[in-house]
Specification:
19% strand, 5-stranded mixed β-sheet, 197 residues, alpha+beta, two-stranded antiparallel ribbon, single chain
Length: 197
């Protein structure tokens, strides 16, 4: 009887451990799903905001740069070729941005055709190279089967010394991006908020 009881307790203990591990894995999956964009696999707005706040709290200022990118005239792709094609273009853009940045940078899709990149630990001389890497991600056409799309972007870049918290920094980056968008007729454009602004 004692051996049987001991065996049941051991089995029950193992089952309990398995259940706990499954619940923890499911919790991690739900946590990730809340913070990742379904279409691109990048961080979504919630995940981005949390990571930006974390970087602002831990990385010395102004060594955190934030770039906000908006695809120029993306609505025309959706209108003329359908939302499925638009989604494929967004996936390609997301993959190119991810490949263009450093491994410790964070790429996010904020929604629609708007992306953001958090670049912690940049030195002041690195900002131009950072901006150029983002523009280079849009240099080649997006090829989907027999169709080619020349996709350009407007980029706004700011550094952490322009704001005290994540939402304020994002607002400044958005403003810089809209400055760049005013020049979009010349292709991809970057606008950097200077320390004097």
């Amino acid at each position: 009887v004692a051996v049987a009881l001991s065996g049941r307790q051991l089995t029950g203990s193992r089952d309990k451990r398995r259940l706990i591990l499954r619940l923890r894995a499911r919790e991690r999956g739900l946590h990730a799903a809340l913070r990742n964009d379904d279409l691109t696999g990048l961080a979504n707005r919630l995940g981005f905001s949390e990571q930006l706040s974390r970087h602002l709290a831990t990385v010395p200022r102004p060594a955190v740069a934030l770039a906000v990118l908006d695809i120029n005239d993306f609505k025309l792709i959706n209108d003329n070729h359908g939302h499925g094609t638009g989604d494929e273009v967004l996936r390609v853009v997301a993959a190119r941005l991810k490949a263009a940045v450093r491994t410790n940078d964070v790429v996010a899709r904020l929604g629609g055709d708007e992306f953001a990149v958090i670049a912690p630990g940049l030195r002041s001389g690195d900002y131009d190279a950072f901006a150029q890497r983002l523009l280079d991600a849009f240099a080649d056409p997006v090829v989907l089967g027999a169709r080619r799309f020349n996709v350009s972007t407007s980029v706004g870049i700011v550094t952490a010394d322009h704001a005290d918290h994540a939402e304020e920094l994002l607002a400044h980056a958005d403003a810089a991006m809209y400055q760049a968008k005013e020049r979009k007729g010349q292709g991809s454009q970057v606008s950097q908020l200077s320390n004097a602004d």
